[in-house]
Specification:
The protein is mainly beta. The protein contains no helices and twelve strands. Strands 4, 5, 6, 9, 10 and 11 form a six-stranded antiparallel sheet that branches. Strands 1-3-8-7 form a four-stranded antiparallel sheet, with no helix packed on it. Strands 2-12 form a two-stranded parallel sheet.
Length: 123
Amino acid sequence: QVQLVESGGGLVQAGGSLRLSCAASGRSFGNPVMGWFRQTPGKERDFVAAITWSGDSTVYADSVKGRFTISRDNAKTTMYLQMNSLQPEDTAVYYCAATYGRIRFHNAAYAYWGQGTQVPVSS
């Protein structure tokens, strides 16, 4: 079982920055691929970014490329999402997730989820 806990969300002005963290724990944690998703009311949970266990491969949604950076510290079993140049359209609840195998883009492929952290971006 894997437990994921996000932190770092909060209100930010357009153009500002925020860093989200995801702390992972569990007896059978292993070497998962980890990702970030976001969701707004009435919409599906959308892929934002993902990173392999080694950190040598990262993938981003087109909407966040060049603005967001995903990283992980395996010693601390923590993943991060550095978000720069935030815009009102980035407003969402952000979730971290874990899966095993290769990087995947659909939320259904991820078995483990955090509780989410809100990121409202004001204009």
